[in-house]
Amino acid sequence: METEVQRSVSLRLNRRGDRNNQFQQNRDAEGGLFSSERLSQDYPMKAVWKRGFIRLFLVGGIVWILLILTVLLFHIWSCESSFAFFSAICNRESKVFVVLDNMGLVPKPQHRCPIPIANDPDKVVILQGRTPDKIVQNLSYIVEDKKNEFQSPPLFGGHQSWLQREKSFRLKSTMKVHCGFMQNGGAEMNPIDINYAKKCRFVVASGIFDGYDTPHEPSDISARSKKLFCFLMVMDEISLDFIKKNVTVKEDVDGGLWVGIWRLVLLKHPPYDEPRRNGKVPKILTHRLFPEAQYSIWIDGKMELMVDPLLILERYLWRGKHTFAIAQHKHHHSIYEEADAIKRRKRYARPLIDLHMKIYSYEGMKPWSPKKGTISDVPEGAVIIREHTALNNLFSCLWFNEVNLFTPRDQLSFGYVVYRLGGLFKFFMFPNCEYNSLFVLHPHTREHSSVVEWVKSLDEFKTNKTGLKESRGGLGLWTPYPGNLDSVILPPVARTSKAG
């Protein structure tokens, strides 16, 4: 009996299970949303979509990276391009270019070359004595304008007349000329800096104005040169305040300020409205700022010196018995070529550059040619190496007077002064590739912002309501010139360099 009951229960359970299986099969047959067949079909589709999304994401990322790399490579290529248009749009001072250069992605400049310098600064024999002054033996400076002749406030460069300018080019054994630093004209040094500079016989000088740069510590300076040379960084108050906020400045027991090896020399009351013109004071008139110096090496403020200064003096002065050395410009030989480049690159007011060149052309300055006795009329003025002889000091004064009278583009005036001295001023113009091997060029902290650079016509200067016209410099461009410039036609300029 019991066995029959168990059999009956077992049959009922089997029937119930069959019905459940049949119900499940019917649902699957009807295509339920969660049928095993449907699920088995959905898994491959989801996998395909997932793989496709990942591939799309990866491809998009690769395309984006390639696009960025293309832009960066184009930026590098434009700076090295032989096409004038692309080389003109290159900005080597941009943050992108600086980062790429630091990463080693920018090709090393091909315009550098080895400098034939001595190997050991300790073995350099310092030239004893001074080069004798044979042409100009006594040089003095005009420091005060004649009383009641001028009603305007004192000027740093003085009120040099056209007649005084003309006489200054006539070399004599005894001469007295304008050379900046007129009484009450500005650019005063602190007494502690004056006292410090009195002991400096060998000087490496540089300058920073309007906060465009910060001092860069020179590299590979020997212990001998550190003792022999004074490293003097001349600046205005704006730059000093900027440096104090951005660089560690130390003060010695005498009150002198230092950034590394550089002694900071403050020029109070900048003499000019234009920062670029202020920068010409320590650059050209180094012998006036530091009158006890026998030798000086000038480098622009954005440069980091890489060669021991004692080796520089041996290479560029003593070895060839020179007293003045300056590099040849990379692209231009004629001042008219340089003037054209300045106008195209908007580095100063175009009409004033033209007026400057018209005066030089009227006074007989011809475009450079191989027939001239000089390698070039246009220097690369960021490095100047000189012995402070009387003739070199006179040349520096005359060069500065041209910058004071006309435009602050000193590369236009250098060759003119050489021309006016009739070959009596001797100098060594060394290859540009050596110049580029002397230093590392750093970008400015910011771009120059002089509105004068964008002036297109003299009418914009009229009445000076715009503030464009400088009040203390360039007055020779506004003083009636003793000659008819209307008939002057500037020499035609053929662009000889893709980057110039």
Distance between the termini: 119 Å
How many DSSP E strands?
A: 14
Q: How many strands, which pairing sense, and closed or not: the largest β-sheet?
A: 10 strands, mixed
**What is the overall silhouette?**
globular
How many domains? The number is 2
Based on CA atoms alone, the radius of gyration comes out at: 36 Å
Low-pLDDT runs: 27-34, 81-88
Q: What is the mean pLDDT?
A: 86
Count, helices? 17
Relative helix content: 25-40%
- The proportion of residues in beta strands is 5-15%
Helix-strand makeup class: alpha/beta
Tell me about this structure.
Keywords: Membrane, Transmembrane, Transmembrane helix. It holds the Pfam family TOD1_MUCI70. This is TOD1/MUCI70 glycosyltransferase-like domain-containing protein. There is one protein chain. The longest helix is centred in the first third of the chain and has 45 residues. 39% of the residues lie in helices and 13% in strands. A hairpin with a 2-residue loop joins strand 7 and strand 8. It starts with a helix and ends in a 59-residue tail after the last strand. It folds into two domains: 87 residues; 339 residues, no CATH class. Helix 15 packs across helix 16. About 3% of the residues have low confidence. By secondary structure, it is of the alpha/beta class. The chain is built from 17 helices and 14 strands. 38% of the residues are buried. The strands form three sheets. Strands 3, 4, 5, 6, 7, 8, 9, 11, 12 and 13 form a ten-stranded mixed β-sheet that branches. Strands 1-2 form a two-stranded parallel sheet. It has a two-stranded antiparallel sheet with strand order 10-14.
